[in-house]
Amino acid sequence: MLAATTAPMERLQIVTVPQTLRLPSFAEDVAAGFGARPKRLNSKYFYDAVGSALFDAITQLPEYYLTRAETAILREWGWEIVRALGNPVEFVELGSGSAAKTRFLIEEALRVQRALRYSPIDISAEALRSSAGSLVESYPALRVCGYVADYLSILDTPHLRRSETMLVMFMGSNIGNYEPAEAVALLRRVAALLKPGDGLLLGADLKKDRRDLMLAYDDAAGVTAAFNKNLLVRINRELQADFDVKGFEHTVEYEEKTGGLHSYLTSRSEQDVALGALGIHVHFESGERIHTESAYKYSLQDIAQMARAAGLSVSRSWFDGGRRFSVNLLVRAS
Ligand code: AVI
């Protein structure tokens, strides 16, 4: 039990989880991606300091409805969401970022239980320290145990094994940036963590009119284009490459059948680029595309199917007023 007078810093713990699995380096991934046909770059590399700031700007754009719609759901239905599993509950959040939207759930949980433990996981120590610090300042009955870690690696460690009822959150349609088979594999690993009675809260963007989707990923002000092209700026800086960033265009394509919104960097002309650190030259034909991101959109049936394939089932779903976005409570399939 937390004494009401416990100082904020005594309710905050940050653990840095060492990477056990050796993941390919940026250089290795870039070399493999440019060696592949079609050429590709992994969207996880968007998020250097500039890319993270550009993503924050994207979330404020009039065309990018996702963050606003998810926030509206948590604001309106947070009370029902935190009561859906039974209390007391504790929260774990995969890829917590600023944790701004999580506040709605924290506040609701603290209405029905005296104290709450929240375990945010984020790869950025800076984002984690700043969000966790401000949360413990705001809520005297909140204890935060944050993990600086890649959320994929921490799933296989004992850090998240809890005896209390646990609500694991994976919000913001981050699931959509995984290929369908990878998304199921990821959910299966989360499912392995869940005890009977636990839940996974999954934010997932919904299939909708192609024009709205294309605009959300190719906004009029060009912020998403800059976010995409920043990958080339990063490669120039970190891998001593000589990309002429203006020589590439941000292009998007929506594949209705799969719900895949694909982003590319398309070469405006035939050109050769040197990647100094890799000791290679990469040739681009005019119009040749580098695939940089897929953002999958789902029907309710797609979400149910994905959950089922991971050994989970959808217990409840909540929507914003325009039914553009969904927040789903997944539980272990019995
Ligand atoms: C982080 N992720 C859920 C965003 C999305 O909507 O797929 C990334 C993004 N890419 C372009 N705009 C936003």
SSE series: EHEHHEHEHEHEHEHHEEEEEHEE
**How confident is the prediction overall: mean pLDDT?**
95
Supply Rg.
21 Å
Distance between the termini: 33 Å
Task: State the oligomer.
Answer: single chain
Strand order of the largest sheet: 1-5-4-3-6-7-14-13
**Are there runs of 5+ residues with pLDDT below 50, and where?**
none
Bound molecules: N,N-dimethyl-L-histidine
Report on the architecture of this protein:
This protein has 334 residues and is of the alpha/beta class. Helix content is 34%, strand content 27%. The two termini are 33 Å apart. The mean pLDDT is 95. The site of N,N-dimethyl-L-histidine has 11 residues, from strand 12.
Secondary structure blueprint with pairings:
Elements (H helix, E strand, L loop, with lengths): L11 E5 L9 H10 L3 E2 L8 H10 L7 H18 L5 E6 L7 H11 L3 E7 L2 H14 L3 E7 L2 H4 L10 E6 L9 H14 L5 E7 L4 H7 L6 H16 L9 E8 L4 E8 L3 E5 L4 E5 L4 E8 L3 H10 L2 E8 L5 E8 L2
Parallel strand pairs: 1-5, 2-12, 3-4, 3-6, 4-5, 6-7
Antiparallel strand pairs: 7-14, 8-9, 9-12, 10-11, 13-14
Helix pairs in contact: 2-9, 3-4
Bound molecules: N,N-dimethyl-L-histidine.
The site of N,N-dimethyl-L-histidine (AVI) has 11 residues, from strand 12.
Summarize the structure.
Helices cover 34% and strands 27% of the residues. By secondary structure, the chain is an alpha/beta fold.
